[in-house]
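Pair request: fold both.
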Amino acid sequence: MTAQRTPAGHIVAVVSDVDGTLLRTDKSLAPRTVEVVEELRRAGVKFAIVSSRPPRGMTAVIDRLGITTPIAGFNGGIVALPDLTVIASHLIEPDVARHAVDAIGAAGASAWVFSGRDWYVRDRNGPRVPFEQRTVGFGPVAVDDFAAVIGTAAKIVAVSDDPALLNKLQDEVRVSLSGCAHIARSQSYYLDFTHPLANKGHAVQEIAARLGVSPANVAVIGDGENDIDMFSKAGLSIAMGNGDADVQQAADFVTGRNDEDGAAAALEWFVLRGQRTPMVGGGAPRKVAQ
């Protein structure tokens, strides 16, 4: 739990991560989660989503939850209406994008480039490509090189199933690209590169502004390293029980795991019921919803 901070008591909007938070590991939305989002809507609490996914890969969740608020994809690189009309964008500078792709290749990882509505890869059968295709609901465009799209990249991803390799790469590029890119893990096997303003903290501020509410009255919930940025920008932050220890430590509260419908439990307890005490099974020093 975050030290020296009093979570907001009055919440008028929620901004939620998608994968590992709203969605179960099999990428399904639990009926309980759908019901709680509808209860929030009936209670007058606005509900938005932010994700490392491309906006195009968020449409199934938008439709299933009946989302009517702006959404943010690419960790905030694109803010769009639910019909995917872009209302704000933060693209990576071309020189920075080229540096990122070169560094990824030198490290021995695979590079993906997301530009416009499409996802570009060099190898359709590369690591995690089939998995990502199932996740976002559309396939990649295979190219020999990224020259034609590198100048309009919203997100670049280093992909590897070797966590140590990505850890080393992350340390290196945070030095070589300091101040030029936002670099964070969205999954243990994905290292995301975006514009410095394309982070979930800034995305929460942009969404709150477009909703006409203060971030101090917004609750956020997520499970990943890239979600930590939004924890400090919102009035109430909740980490998923499946998140790493540093993610949980950065939040005001910790709920159950995504496969246990932890997001639904937390939204019901902390937002709909307005509780700021542990649920049954919770305990110091963390405040836990189950």
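--- second member of the pair ---
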Amino acid sequence: MLWWWDNYIHPYNLYGHFKALSNYLKGVNLEESRFVKIQAKVLIPSPLKREDLTEITIYPSLGWAKPEVNVFKIEVDGKVANVSQLSSFIHGKAHPELKNNPTFVVSLPYGGEAVIHVNSVSKSGATLDVYIDDLLVESRVFKDVDGKNDAEAGEYNLDVKVAVPPGVHKLRFDNSGGDWLTFDYIKFTNAIAKQSKVRVIGLKNDTMSLLWIQNKDHTWWNVVNNIPVEPVEKVEVELCGFKDGSYIVEYWDTYSGVVMRTEEVVATNGEIHLTIEDVKKDIALKIYRKTS
């Protein structure tokens, strides 16, 4: 539901943007359809080849507060444990009551790079220390250069990169300086399967399924800022909870609201397997039980 339909959508006559969705839902009674959440899973290849891997960018969501935990494990499917507790502040000596600086556990089968994007530092300055398995591999002093003491000022806007050898490692980002520094994101290359960039959600009942498949990197922010989105060339999707038999799958263009193609699939042991190619933005699917 859009909260701002009365003061934005209607005054500016933006209803045309909903035409594709209207076409897709034509004939579907959402109130009476008794839809339930569909059981969907993106399958990750095993073993993973170098070309199957891509980078993950992790953004902090906690501000001026002590994180409850400071260890963040990155899984190959893109999940990051405890990520809600990742603070944008890496504290130095001035605030021991807030200091709980982050450690990431990550598997890089072919090696890669860790990148932290430094935003700003306090008036007292800071020293960023990066450890791999408790070995100091980078130490960089950041002096106050703008005098603002503003955590979001973009004072440095600088990437600090360290090479990470193949294997499972603990990377700790610490600060031995006088006071805080802030960062915008931490990135690890060659860390997750490309297929993990695909989101699959949907609804189903006994006769129909509605499915949305999206490249997670295709966000309004990336589009507005012209940040390139890497297409996922091929992804296998497993859907569960279906009666065995034949089904018709419609692939819908989410911008034009038309069916691009259809195919027939068979559910076996309650599962439907789909192969989706070239996921750069998003697509929608309708799945019907085939009637003889």
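Observation on the second member. Residues 18-35+205-289 form a domain with the Immunoglobulin-like fold (CATH 2.60.40).
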